[in-house]
Amino acid sequence: MCNHKNREQAMEVVERDANGTPTVWCDPCIYRLVKALNNGGLRTVASCCGHGEMHGVISLADGRELLIFPDYESARKAETPKGTQKPAPPSNPPPAACCASTECCMTLRQYAAIHLRHPDSGLDWLDKMIQAAAADQHREWRGGPR
After folding, report:
1. From the CB of residue 144, how many other CB atoms can be counted at a distance below 10 Å?
2. DSSP letters of 38-95?
3. How far, in Å, CA of 83 to CA of 102, rounded?
4. Against a cut of 0.90, is the pTM above it?
5. Are 63 and 49 in contact (CB under 8 A)?
6. In this predicted model, what pLDDT tens digit does every residue of 108-141 receive, in sequence order?
7. CB neighbours of 94 closer than 8 A, spacing ≥ 6?
8. What would the DSSP string read from start to end of 116-141?
């Protein structure tokens, strides 16, 4: 997994729109995987390698998530053998699971942006909130005031 001082500057562009604006980007250490998924028709909406602090994740446009483990042993520990207690459901289920009405409260892209703390929700106000929260967290890590 990568170890970059400035994660945002290290991001690799996977795809650009007709105007050349990046539309899909990711951490450099999972670039080839994210590019292969998108080239193969599995659209990604968000990704993070985990930066050595946790497992990585790639969120697909259809709502599935792919987990990336640093090694074989870590992946085996995450598996639940048959006949044992299943892991607890995620604390923040995706919108399709949490919205009982036919009008969903947010898109999967917006959910992924919030869940992965990556400002690419498609909503300027939400992206600004995610960026502000990340800046606050970064200041806390450095020991500065909020």
Report:
1. 9
2. HHTT--EEEEE--TTTS-EEEEETTS-EEEE-SSHHHHHHH---TTSPPPPPPSS--H
3. 35
4. no
5. no
6. 677 677 766 778 878 788 778 878 777 777 676 6
7. 63, 108, 111
8. TT-S-SS-HHHHHHHHHHHHHHHHHH
Per the CB < 8 A criterion, the answer to whether 37 and 107 are in contact is no
Structure tokens at 44: 């990604």
Structure tokens at 95: 């919108």
**Which two tokens mark 46?**
């968000």
Residue environment code for 44-53, b if the CB has 16+ CB neighbours within 10 A, otherwise e: bbbbbbbeee
User: Please, are residues 31 and 49 in contact by the beta-carbon 8 Å criterion?
Assistant: no
Please, which residues bridge with residue 25 across strands? 13
Residue with tokens 């985990």: 50
